[in-house]
Design a protein that fits this description.
The protein is an alpha/beta fold. Among the domains are: about 30-230, EAL domain (TIM Barrel), CATH 3.20.20; about 235-305, no CATH class. It is about 50% helix and about 10% strand. It is built from 23 helices and 8 strands. The chain has helices at about 5-10, 65-70, 75-80, 85-90, 100-105, 130-140, 155-160, 180-190, 200-210, 235-245, 250-260, 260-275, 285-295, 295-305, 320-335, 345-355, 360, 365-375, 375-385, 390-400, 405-410, 420-435, 445-450; strands at about 25-35, 40-50, 95-100, 115-120, 145-150, 165-170, 190-195, 215. An 8-stranded mixed beta barrel has the order 1-2-3-4-5-6-7-8, surrounded by 5 helices. α9 links the parallel β7 (about 190-195) and β8. The chain starts with a helix and ends with a helix. It comes from Paraburkholderia bengalensis. InterPro entries: dGMP_Pdiesterase_EAL/HD-GYP (IPR014408), EAL_dom (IPR001633), EAL_sf (IPR035919), HDOD (IPR013976), RNase_Y/CdgJ (IPR052340). Pfam families: EAL, HDOD.
């Protein structure tokens, strides 16, 4: 099914989210940026546009310049950036947007709200007088800049530095001998330091000790980071709850087990009271919350809340829970696009996403934890071996999280009815869904969590 056909089908079925027209050919992936408290504070957005065949002409809209219609930059990209799904996927956090020279000189860039986005300047951009003048002009309009992917201090870096509020240092490429001095000088200059490519606890601790302010990477989702993460309940209690949820628990059983997980109870009570299911009165007990929402809905959201940080932080600020919720929702949305997908396949897809990095909470062997949970074989095979349709979808979403578009395209090519642009847009839908689940003023409750 083509992207246009998918979009038309979703629109015909009243399903919001996939952009229409030109914006349907532009999308983004998001990557988390954490602060020194290991909480989400921003997302970097990675642009995706499907390759255009050489014999395919890109249509232009009336009144739109030829450069806007043909280029990968300009009005089309900015319109896509301002789509509701992109804004919702940021979950009230700032967005870091990589920009090119062409985009900086496009007047349409001023449609981007300066208070919501930071512009990332490539470390190898041609920093001539004309570019510096444009940066100064935009800076005067309250736009702020980050120098991206820095591995050395060259002439370009020196020219850009006075106009940058922050510097992203590539922890994989920079010479380790120069890193401490480099970080110290930049901190003394008042620059916000962002460690880029933080994929292990060791790299995180190195950057933290050097005074870095932000950390970009997935170190928090790996088992080696579990020791530093305060989970919401003892591991044996979480395993007992997971095992209970794997069957058909009674209200009394679920209530008793949940009481051993106070952070889970807190979030579930908030969700129940924002759901509109309380029949005009506030839900005050756990039993009322379970009865008001139903054990199936409670079970599904509790599976996600197992990743909740033990410090009682807002769900939209919790990086591991946001990653789990986004991945699970993506798997659910994506499997529905495939032929012959029913309710069982949808539930299995959601569970595959939820438990795909459960070892980040429990530590130890992922295979051992999955054995304890007694998951169905297709789910186990998908997580451990990346086998079957669920395994391929898991490969898609993992590549999407990295913004590795070639890998997304290759994995989607193995699935009937799913293209990379569809995956990117469903990734934004999933991120938006995860980001609003704990905002009582905005959420419609658990109905949104399980449509």
């Amino acid at each position: 099914m083509t992207t246009t056909a998918v979009a038309e089908e979703r629109q015909a079925n009243g399903v919001p989210g996939i952009a229409q027209g030109e914006c349907a050919n532009v999308s983004f992936a998001r990557q988390p940026i954490l602060n020194r408290d290991n909480m989400l504070c921003a997302f970097e957005l990675r642009l995706y546009r499907p390759p255009v065949a050489q014999d395919q002409e890109t249509p232009s809209n009336e009144g739109e310049s030829q450069s806007d219609a043909q280029g990968s930059e300009g009005a089309a990209v900015i319109r896509a950036l301002l789509e509701p799904d992109v804004r919702a996927a940021l979950a009230n956090h700032p967005g870091y947007l990589p920009v090119t020279r062409e985009l900086l000189f496009d007047e349409a860039i001023q449609r981007i709200p300066a208070e919501r986005f930071m512009f990332e300047l490539p470390a190898d951009i041609h920093a001539d007088d004309q570019l510096i003048a444009r940066i100064v002009e935009l800076y005067g309009r309250r736009y702020r800049f980050v120098i991206d992917n820095v591995a050395q201090a060259n002439d370009t870096f020196a020219r850009l530095l006075p106009y940058a509020d922050a510097v992203k240092i590539n922890m994989e490429r920079i010479a380790q001998a120069m890193l401490p001095k480099f970080a110290s000088v930049l901190k003394s200059a008042g620059k916000l330091l962002i460690a880029q490519g933080v994929e292990s606890q060791a790299v995180y601790e190195q950057a933290f000790d050097l005074g870095f302010d932000r950390f970009q990477g997935y170190y928090f989702a790996h088992p080696q980071g579990a020791a530093a993460r305060k989970v919401s309940a003892p591991r044996h209690a979480l395993l007992n709850l997971l095992q209970l949820l794997g069957g058909e628990p009674t209200v009394a059983q679920l209530e008793a087990e949940l009481k051993l997980n106070p952070v889970l109870v807190m979030h579930l009570m908030r969700l129940a009271n924002s759901s509109g299911l309380a029949m005009g009165r506030k839900v005050t007990t756990l039993r009322e919350a379970i009865n008001a929402t139903g054990t199936n809905r409670i079970a599904r959201w509790t599976q996600l809340l197992l990743y909740a940080d033990g410090r009682k932080v807002a769900l939209e600020d919790d990086p591991l829970l946001q990653l789990a919720a986004t991945r699970a929702r993506f798997m659910e949305l994506a499997v529905e696009r495939l032929p012959e997908a029913g309710r069982d396949e949808t539930d299995a897809a959601f569970l595959t996403g939820v438990f795909s990095f459960v070892d980040s909470v429990f530590g130890g062997s992922l295979e051992h934890t999955l054995n304890v949970l007694v998951l169905a074989k297709p789910i186990r095979d998908a997580i451990l071996l990346r086998e079957g349709v669920l395994g391929t979808l898991l490969t898609v979403v993992e590549a999407l999280e990295r913004g590795a578009w070639a890998d997304v395209e290759a994995a989607c090519a193995r699935l009937e009815g799913l293209q990379a642009i569809d995956a990117a847009q469903m990734g934004l839908l999933a991120a938006a869904w995860a980001g609003v689940a704990d905002r009582s003023a905005e959420a419609t409750g658990l109905e949104r969590i399980e449509d």
